[in-house]
Amino acid sequence: MAEVLLEAAGVVKRFAGVLALDGVSLQLGGGEVHGLVGENGAGKSTLIKILTGVHQPDEGEVRHLGRPVRFATPLEAQQAGISTIYQEINLVPLLSVARNLFLGHEPLNRLGLIDSARLHRQAREVLGRYGLDIDVTRELRTLGVGTQQMVAIVRALTTGEARVVIMDEPTSALEPREVDTLFRVVDQLRGEGVALLYVSHRLDELYRICQRITVLRDGRMVHTGPIAELPRLKLVATMLGRDLTDVRERGLTQLEGGHVAAAAPVLTAEHLTRLHVLDDVSLTVRPGEVVGLAGLLGAGRSETLRAIAGADPLDAGGVSVGGTRVRGGSTKAAIAAGIALLPEDRKAEGIIPNLSIRDNIVLAALPRLSRAGLVSDRRADELVATFMKRLQIKASGPDQKVGELSGGNQQKVLLARWLCMEPRVLLLDEPTRGIDVGAKAEVQALVDELAEQGLGVVLVSSDLEEVVEGADRVVVLRDGAVSGTVEGDDITEDRVLALLATEGGGRDG
C-alpha cells in the first residue's frame, strides 16, 4: 500500500452506554479507493465522524501523516486536507452554483466586495476540471438533485487542498451518467495521489472502483483486505454474519412477487394530470397486490405517489379508495381513507430526528390513542413495543432519538408509524435507498408479508431488479405519462427497459 495518509488505530466510541465502535482500525493510503461497508448501525458513520473531528474517540487514536491528531472540529480536519462528501446535500439552495462552490472563501475586489466576474470564471474552471458543464449563475435549487450532488462533491474537493476524501453514499441521488462522471473524478483523484474512503451499499460500485475494503459489523472490524480477494457473496455473508451457504440459497433480494390479489381494486387513480409534471396517469391496485412504478429520474414516479397521497395538487383526475372518492390535495383526507406514503427523502419529509422512536411512531396515531384530548401512555407504549419487535428496530430503547439511528432503522420507524394506522394502501417511494443489504432484505420481506395480508402496495425503486422481482404488475412511466404496463411472466428487465425507451404505449395502468 502507498503512504498512509489517515489512520484510525484501535478506536473505541460509546454513546449513552452503547458501544458504537469496538477497537476499529483503518488505514487510508494515497492513490487508493478504500471501501467501507457494513449493515446500518455497524458503526460506519461513527467512524467517519471520528476521522473528521465531529466526535472524539474514547480509546485509541487518529493518525494523520503518521502523527497522532485530535481534530476538535470538522473545520480543523478540513484545514488538514480531509474533505467529506455526505449523502445529504448540505448547500444553500437560494445561492448560485458559483456562490455555493466558494462559500466562505469567495474572491474579493479591492473594496472587499465579492468579485462576481472572477467568482464565475473560477467556478467554471473548477467545474471544467472535472468535466462538468453547469451554468454557474443559476440558483442551486433550480437544478436537479443529481446536479446539486455533483456541485456538493466539487465543493468538497476544492475546499482547501484535499489529500483525503471521504465519500458517504455519494451516488444515492445520481443518474447512471452522473455516476460515470463521478467515477472519472475518482480515477482522477487517485492519479493525483489522493486517498479515498468510499462508503456505499451498492456492491457493483464497490467492485468497480475500490482496491481495498473494510467490513464493520456491530461496531467491530470483521474483515479488511484487497476487494479482489473477497467474492461478492462472501462479502455479503461477512457483513451479515451469516453462513455463505445461507446467503447463496436465499439470494440478495427478498421480494417474491406472485401475490394472490383480490378482484376489486382497493385503489383507483384516474387521469392524474398536472401541468408539466403528470399527463393523464391512471393505475389501479388490488388488495394483496404489489404494483411497481418504473421510470427514469424525472419520469413522474414520486410525483404520482404524492398526488395519490394528497401531498401535491392536481389539475385534473382523482383518486378513489374502495370505490369512494378521496378529496384531492388533502393529505388528511388521504390518510383517513387509508392511504399511507413513505416518502423518498426520509430525513426531510419523514422522521423528526430530535424526537424519540416512541414519539415518531405514534405521531400519526395520536388521535386514535387519545380520549378527551389526553393520550393513553399505556396504549402508546404497547403499540411502540409491538412494532419495534415486529420490525426488529435496533435501538437502546423507545426513548432513543431517531436521529441517532442508522438509515435502515429510521426507515423501519417510518414504516411502523404508518402500519400502526392499519392502512389499506401503502405507497413506498424508494424504501430501500441508502440502507444496507441486511436491512434491505428485511424491508423487502416485510413488503411481501404485508401484501400477503391483503394490503395494496405501490412500489417505486431506482433498483430495476427490485421492481421486476417484487411487483405483480409494473406501470412504466416516461415523461410524466404511462408508457405501458407489464404483468405476470412478462415482467422482465428487458421488457421494462424497452417501454422506457419507447414513445407512447398503453395509457391505462
Any idea what the shape is? globular
* Number of helices, counting only DSSP H or I runs of 4 residues or more: 18
How many DSSP E strands? 22
CATH topology of the largest domain: Rossmann fold
How would you describe this structure to a colleague?
The chain is built from 18 helices and 22 strands. By secondary structure, it is of the alpha/beta class. It has 2 domains: 170 residues, Rossmann fold, CATH 3.40.50; 235 residues, P-loop containing nucleotide triphosphate hydrolases (Rossmann fold, 3-Layer(aba) Sandwich). The strands form 5 sheets. The protein has a 6-stranded mixed beta sheet with strand order 6-7-8-3-9-10, sandwiched between helices. Strands 16-19-20-13-21-22 form a 6-stranded mixed beta sheet, sandwiched between helices. The chain has a 4-stranded antiparallel beta sheet with strand order 2-1-4-5, covered by helices on one side. Strand 7, helix 6 and strand 8 form a beta-alpha-beta unit. Helix 8 crosses helix 9. The longest helix is centred in the middle third of the chain and has 16 residues. It is globular. The relative contact order is 0.11. The C terminus is likely disordered.
